């Protein structure tokens, strides 16, 4: 049998090899019409498009091919880079103005897309209203979404956001994404100043307004908001007086909560006690300071339900509690507040521990192989 007549069932198994590059698939698709028909759905199943202010010919060609084959796309990754602000003199040069509207219009017709990654990288001119407008535009055309990842790397020391930039009353609420089960929201302000912290309540408020209702059925939530204050503690302390809009959550099984400033515990941002959560990834601060502090505030006779059913705890930074750095005491410390804890993972130290309890309630733990 010639290779051209190889059954497509076998070919499709070959195509499922994750190590295959787009170029490999393109070569395979040219073998025969039969192979082309089999390869195209796989070739466009995961589609990554990197948008720059001026499209290169090859990127324009890829965008045109998406218009033809986009109904095969299930996972769509959008990378936007180097947006030019209206105040920038280069904005007057028509060759440099990003044609973002045309770009989005070409991406929006295909409702078959179920997984989207929207990634703004090295943005120096995009204001928060523009960011939320683009996000709203994308999700409003993809109501069958199952998974949504949103990442921003803002350079706030270049163009810091101001609260007056964001008008919550005029923001559009995104259509309800009833199928959304996985949401990953990351803002990484590596060079942030105090303005980043001051805009934190507005960031949270807009996030809840635009996507809050769609998160009710989310079972996997990742919230990574790194906003560093280098100007002193007063700006951070002011957040203690802030009433945040609460994100409504009902069914989170797996939660990643890595938020700075650390004075913002989960109870300040979510309308949930996470009784369904089995896997928790968070900072040492949440377990070492917020959990025991919250426990102490529980009225006599009432139970403390936050994370009570967590089975796996992953600490992303230094594992430190009120007991100091003593490993044995710290394991006993977190196990006290997480009665169903069975596995503890310390990412910084690359160590992992198995935890169990005897019939008398005493704790038994041992180190096991670290799994990345």
TrEMBL record:
Pfam families: F-box-like. Signal peptide: none annotated. Residues 3-50 form the F-box domain. This is F-box domain-containing protein. It comes from Arthrobotrys conoides.
